[in-house]
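User: If only I could read backbone structure tokens as easily as an amino acid sequence. Those tokens are not coordinates but codes from a learned vocabulary of shapes. Could you go through the record with me and say what the backbone is doing? Here is the record:
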Amino acid sequence: MTASIEKVVIIEIGGSHDECLYTQLIALKKNGVQVTLIVNEEISHRNQHFEEFCSEIIVIDSRRLKDHKRATIKSIWKKIKRINPTKVVLNTAQGKEIKSLCFLALFSKIEFIGILHTTRKLEGSFTQKLISLKIKKYLFLSEFLMEKVKSKSKAKLGCFYPIDFYKTSINNEELINKQITIIGGVETRRKDLQGFIWLASQLKDQNLKYVFLGKSDPKSEVMHEFIFDLQRNGLLDKVQFYDSFVSHQLFNEQLQKSMFILPLVHPETPSSEQYFNNQISGAMTVSFGYSTPMLIHEAYQNIEEMNDASFYYNFDNFAEMVEQAMAELDLKRSTMKTSYNAVLEQNKYANFVLNLA
């Protein structure tokens, strides 16, 4: 008698966090799992390489989800029941839509597993308590975050780093130049822009290029103010922006040309309220995946999982530290390739989701 093939459905209907999907798809496929991916049209369009890992990709209309939420969630649940998987993985296991889906599935034997991107959801969110009536297993994208809430949660917790990225090779002549990359566009909630002005001003005499690798709104007040500050400090010609979505190919090319990643998270700024306290910056997993070291404020040296990937600075020694980091770049990259292993992270994910260990 032939053993049945395990089926898993992965859902991301929020339009973000698709950077977390590639590792999951690779991990499940190599374990012989039949994967159905349920995503919105944005994620489907910009990740066409997902097709080779999936038996089916179901695309959800974002506008219909917004205007007819209840009917759309019921439709998703109907599709899940048709597939009849053993497990459903919620790539972003939070929000009212996910709560509604979990309620529909509450008495089903299908196991729901959630990925959480912030500890706040297990530290007092009533909506999350309702979601947790169905979800008994959660994954975090950081060991630091998982340990932070372990004693507060009755759920089984695990972690993995989604450090697989769809990479294409580039001309060797284009590899590593004097470029520092900031993941994402120009905005103040996740990035200390005034801190950037201060840091870049210390290196003004060096032939360095800075790239904000994400969509920046050229019409926003924040962007106008930032450009004014760059001009006033003689830095504008050193900074590159994008005013539209950054494709996978462009993202890959810029990362392969970068010496360092600069998260721009600093204590006592809005960026610190967002990152390294309740959630981990996406810059961390990009850094691990590309073996591109981060330049991080020394206040975050206590997060041990980032130590092998980081050079630590304060606002007074930034220029000196960057000079030292340049000298140690090859050694740091070599260390990172050993410390952050994509296959290991795939196995951690598969073991947790498929109960292999």
